[in-house]
Write a structure and sequence with these properties.
Elements lengths: L6 H18 L7 H13 L2 E5 L6 H11 L4 E5 L6 H5 E7 L5 E7 L6 E5 L6 H13 L1 E4 L2 E4 L5 E6 L12 H4 L2 E6 L5 H13 L11 H11 L6 H12 L10 H6 E3 L3 H17 L7 H12 L4 E2 L1 H5 L4 H15 L1
Parallel strand pairs: 1-8, 1-9, 2-5, 5-8
Antiparallel strand pairs: 3-4, 6-7, 10-11
Helix pairs in contact: 2-11, 9-11, 9-12, 11-12, 12-14
């Protein structure tokens, strides 16, 4: 039986998140929305796709997260010649003390709590597909053996939006495994100045551990208890449904600008993330604002805009904003 959610538990939850944010601020300049959404994704048990030009602190963020949350961190640099076994691990033949040959599984870098998949779109589809089971099921199958990954498990994948030569676009099935797609903007002049000053002192992360894996799992269990009123739940479902141009009563902007809509995982991720955002802000109920704010990172990689949108110089976020506005009118 689940414990009753109380204001005291909500306060403890938001205080722990505030401590994590405070420690991360020592190593990551600016990017508050990115940090908040990555924290939400970790607590939710989801994965994140980060899109940004090189040098904006993506690797530093994950390393600092690992320190702050006392979690083992590994980095995989994806390249065209990277094989699935380079990610998951492989069976090797070894001799024991008696000279007998034995097969032993040698774990790959995916066996960590925090995994940075750097430039994931540089790997071939064969290697990308090896990530699918890991990201969704949190387990690795090699031959006839299956190995469970230790919880919490989190993949943060990056891709460069500018350099697309020699890359392999991620398949829709894999894109759908990311709870969020986050856009890392180039820092402002003041932020760039702060970055230069920080790295002149030390290139190492200075964040200290404030929570651990067990506490993250407890926070996840607490978030699952956050109530969502029927009206807000229906609004979230309507918003996702409105991204499908094939639905009869979809938003007018969807008919005009969207080619393909979001999957049911979008609705699941939206509600899960909204519960955690509510707790982070000291509330134990999900609001319409939670849904509106999180709709952008949840939907931007799950819907495909058509040529009309491109011709009118509209980005995915512009179309999502229109769908949110029209969904509110319909409700």
């Amino acid at each position: 039986m689940m414990e009753e959610i109380t204001m005291e538990k909500v306060s403890v939850f938001s205080e722990k998140i505030a401590k994590v944010q405070e420690e991360l601020a020592k190593d990551v300049v600016g990017q508050k929305d990115i940090i908040n959404n990555v924290i939400i994704a970790i607590v939710a048990g989801g994965n994140v796709l980060l899109e940004g030009v090189p040098g904006v602190g993506k690797t530093r963020l994950v390393r600092a997260l690992g320190k702050t949350m006392s979690l083992p961190f590994s980095r995989i640099q994806f390249t065209p010649d990277l094989m699935p076994s380079d990610v998951t691990g492989t069976n090797v033949v070894e001799k024991d003390e008696n000279g007998r040959l034995n097969t032993k599984f040698r774990r790959g870098p995916i066996f960590a709590n925090l995994v940075l998949a750097d430039e994931i779109n540089r790997a071939t589809p064969k290697t990308q597909s090896a990530m699918l089971e890991v990201m969704q099921e949190h387990k690795v199958t090699v031959g006839n053996d299956t190995y469970k990954l230790e919880e919490p498990f989190f993949v943060l994948a990056t891709q460069n939006p500018i350099e697309q030569d020699g890359t392999y676009p991620l398949p829709e099935a894999q894109m759908d495994r990311f709870i969020f797609k986050l856009i890392v903007d180039y820092p402002t002049n003041q932020e760039l100045l702060d970055i230069v000053k920080m790295t002149q002192i030390t290139m190492e992360e200075t964040a200290e551990a404030v929570i651990n894996g067990a506490e993250i799992l407890e926070m996840r269990a607490l978030a699952s208890q956050v109530p969502v009123c029927d009206e807000v739940l229906m609004y979230a479902v309507s918003l996702v449904s409105n991204t499908h141009p094939s639905v009869e009563d979809c938003a007018p902007s969807t008919k005009k600008y969207v080619k393909y809509g979001a999957s049911p995982r979008a609705a699941q991720g939206l509600i899960t993330a909204a519960k955690i955002r509510a707790l982070m802000e000291g509330r134990f109920n999900v609001s319409y604002e939670d849904i509106d704010v999180l709709a952008f990172p949840v939907l931007r990689h799950r819907i495909k805009i058509n040529y009309t949108a491109v011709n009118e110089k509209l980005g995915v976020d512009d179309v999502i904003a229109k769908i949110i506005k029209e969904t509110k009118k319909g409700n």
